[in-house]
Each structure stands twice: as C-alpha cells, then as structure tokens.
Amino acid sequence: MTQAQITRKAPHDTAKRVFIKTYGCQMNVYDSARMADLMAPYGFMPAETAHEADLVILNTCHIREKAAEKVYSELGTIRRLKAAKARSGSRMIVAVAGCVAQAQGAEIMSRASCVDLVIGPQSYHRLPELVARALRTERARILETSFPAEPKFDHLPQARAPRGVTAFLTVQEGCDKFCSFCVVPYTRGAEYSRPVAEVLAEARNLVRQGIREITLLGQNVNAYHGEGPNGSEWGLGALIRGLAELPGLARIRYTTSHPGDVDDELIGAHRDVPQLMPFLHLPVQSGSDRVLAMMNRRHTAQDYRRIVDRLRMAKPDLALSCDLIVGYPGEGDADFRQTLDLVAEIGFAQAFSFKYSPRPGTPAASAPDQVSEEAKAERLTVLQALLRMQQRKFNQACIGRILPVLLEKPGRHEGQLVGRSPYLQSVHVAAPSDLVGRIVPSLILDAGASSLAGSLAGPAVA
C-alpha cells in the first residue's frame, strides 16, 4: 500500500476535515503541522474543532505528569462525538499519535475502543496509508509503533509555512543520553540528524513563504551532526552559520540543549552570528552532583557553571532558561539547597520547574527513596519563588532599553501589535498593522511577570 493509492481529492470535491490536538513540546507542534501537510493532498482540510472533523488526531506528549490520563479523558469526549457522527450516517476516524502512543499503544487499543489507529512519532509519514486502511474496513484497528529503518523525513512533502512570521523546524530527533527520569529514548528512539541540504532547503522554503524567524528543534538539538557537503559532518554551530546566509531569515533560535553537547563551534556561533538570538534554554535539572549522577545527566554542577561562563564570555548579553526537577528519588534537603545555590548564582531569565513524577519504564520510576509529595510541593514552592523573582528582575532591567522586537500579530487592544524581544519575551507595542513581520526598535516602558510593554522608537530595521 502506498500513499498514492489513497484517492486524491480534486479542488471542487467536498473536502473532508482533520482536527489535530497537540500536547506538549514544540516538536509535537512541528509534527502536527507535518501531519496536516501529509493529509491535505487527500482532501483533508483543517477543522477548528473535533466536532466537525472526519479525522481526529491526538498528538500526545509523555513528558508531563498524568499525560496518559489527559489523553484518555479527551478520548471519552471523542468517543461521544464519534458515536453521534455514526448515528447521522457519517464516520469519524480517531488516531492517537506521539509519545504516549509509542509508549502505551497496546493499552490505548485495549482501553479506548473508539480509537482506530495508534501511530508512533517515527511512523507518522505513513499516516495517509494507514488512514486509508482504516477507511476501507469498518472496524480496522491499526497499531503502528515500530521504528522504521528509513528516516520519516525522506517521505514528507514540502513543509507549508504556518500562519504568522515564525516557524519551527525539526533538525534532530531522539536521544542517546538515557537520563534516568526520561522516556524520550524509548519513545523517540536513537539520535538522528537530518542532512544539512534537507534542513537548508526546508528553511529556504519557509523564508520564501514569509517566515522571518526559525526555531531549530531536537530532543537534544545541540547533538546535531548532519551530513554536509561532500560527506562532511556539520554540528549545530555550522548549521546555524549556514542558515544565517539565507536572505530574509532575520532570527534563529534552537531548543532543547544538553550541557554536554555545548562545544566550541556552538559557542562561536553565539559570538559571531547576529541572527542567532541571545537566549538559550539549557536544562540543568539539579544543582546537586549526587542527584545529577543518579539522574545520569553526565555533567556536574561545576561543569554547568563553566559552560555558562564560556557562553557569557562569548555573548555577554546572553539570557538563560532552564529545566529543574525537585524531589527526584533520594534528593535530600542538602541536595535541594545546592539547587537553590546554583539558581541564585547563575540567574535565569525564565525557567521551567517541576515536581518529579515517575515515568513507567524509566529507571527512576522504581528507584528507592521516593520523596514524599509534601516535600516535593514545599521545595517546588521555594524554588519557584526564587525563579519568579529572577524573571521579574530580568524583565524590569529591560525598562528604559530599546530592544529590537519582531512584531508577529495583533494584540488584544486596538492599534496594538505583539512580538518577541531577542530574549523571547512577549512585547506589546502600539503600532500599525502593516508592521507585522518587521523588526522594530521598541522603547520598553513597563514590565510584567511574563511580558513587556513598549512604544516604537524608530523605523523598522528589518
């Protein structure tokens, strides 16, 4: 069975509708867009709600707590919608994709009878073929969670730019680190880097469609090692330099990184490439060497400090974000104090912090010395208070500065546009609508907990 065996719709045919609900990370956002691209040639146009859809896809994430429970709750609603469609003589195909699908595919098929198709994140290039199989048989139930030998990117159509002026671009997938709390190696597989020519071609196509800023994505994006010209290998730093040569691409970002893969080439890109924004998400997870070792993070707190020092030496205005976990099994009060000390020393513009929650199948889930929920909650409250203070301090330090803001869309108020600063802050600016997609100098007048307010301080610069 090939995709070509699915009936392609002529432009005058009545389109079917596909609704994709995306959970979790930016890579899932990218994957959902590619699934929509895959189904479009076969007559499936985007639906605003599941109620009006002929094909419903839940693109799931397994990172956050109770991820699977949220999926089953949503499937309860979908089951009722599917039954209502059946009573009216129509049919709805229900698919569960993403990391929960990969990790719990058989259980989903067992627990949720409304699901026709379960498809893992490495197989979604086969979506049209599998949907066709489901449509041919009234009660076909398909489980596709293998790791294909061929990269899925070889089978995807040319990406369509999303609405707006910013886009995600996946350059790397999978992870070989095997942190003891993380499911990614089991759900996304081994590290794979897309060839340089393929990445540059997709980026060039996005820029032609009006995209001004691209965020490079990977579960471990700075482990990128794609095949370059003449069989050479490019790291992320070299890829960023190559992307910076594309006319019209004003800004480059990347996420998520591992401290162990920050190399000289990448640090040099932060120093030399003006399109690379001075904002880096660099997860540390804990400030305790003992906990980091139990996590199998492969770096110490001092390693992290040295990496940050080198980055800030290369790019003095670099702002940092990170991930932090409290209450990892075996974490004691002294370990937690070391995390607070590290956070206080580094200073973060933003951060994501969580209570540890077990992920089935990971080593940490069965580790002894699980920390009580009460202790986790207390530690998280203390840590988040410190992080909020740092974020407020960073935002308030921007007041009075003129920052270049890429204006992205209308704001909530008449005559207002919203964009992003180089540090990824949301900035509200009084500006005419024809400046969407332009980078404008903005005088920052006020700062909130998570956003800034400014006024135009000159003509657009790009």
Core attributes:
462 residues; alpha/beta; Rossmann fold; OB fold (Dihydrolipoamide Acetyltransferase, E2P); 6-stranded parallel β-sheet; 5-stranded mixed barrel; 12 helices; globular
Low-confidence segments, ≥5 residues, pLDDT <50?
1-6
> Helical stretch count?
12
Kindly state the percentage of residues in helix.
25-40%
* Shape summary: globular
Give me the secondary-structure category: alpha/beta
| Number of extended strands | 21
Please state how the strands of the largest beta sheet are arranged side by side: 2-1-3-4-5-6
CATH architecture name of the domain at 3-144: 3-Layer(aba) Sandwich
Whole-angstrom Rg: 23 Å
CATH topology of the domain at 3-144: Rossmann fold
Task: Please report which band the strand proportion falls in: under 5%, 5-15%, 15-25%, 25-35%, 35-45% or over 45%.
Answer: 15-25%
Provide mean pLDDT, rounded: 92
The CATH superfamily of the domain at 3-144 turns out to be Methylthiotransferase, N-terminal domain
For the terminal residues, how far apart are their CA atoms? 48 Å
The largest sheet, given as strand count, sense and whether it forms a barrel, is:
6 strands, parallel
User: Which CATH C-level class of the domain at 3-144 is it?
Assistant: Alpha Beta
What does this structure look like?
The chain has 462 residues and is an alpha/beta fold. Among the domains are: 3-144, Methylthiotransferase, N-terminal domain (Rossmann fold, 3-Layer(aba) Sandwich); 402-456, Nucleic acid-binding proteins (OB fold (Dihydrolipoamide Acetyltransferase, E2P)), CATH 2.40.50.140. Helix content is 33%, strand content 23%. It is built from twelve helices and 21 strands. The protein has helices spanning 26-39, 67-87, 99-111, 127-136, 184-187, 196-208, 236-244, 264-272, 289-295, 301-314, 333-346, 373-396; strands at residues 16-22, 44-46, 55-60, 93-98, 117-119, 142-144, 166-170, 172-173, 192-193, 213-217, 225-227, 233-235, 251-255, 279-281, 319-326, 350-355, 402-410, 416-420, 426-430, 439-447, 451-456. The strands form six sheets. The protein has a six-stranded parallel β-sheet with strand order 2-1-3-4-5-6, sandwiched between helices. β17 and β18 form a beta hairpin. The protein is globular and about 60 Å long. The model is unreliable at 1-6 (pLDDT under 50).
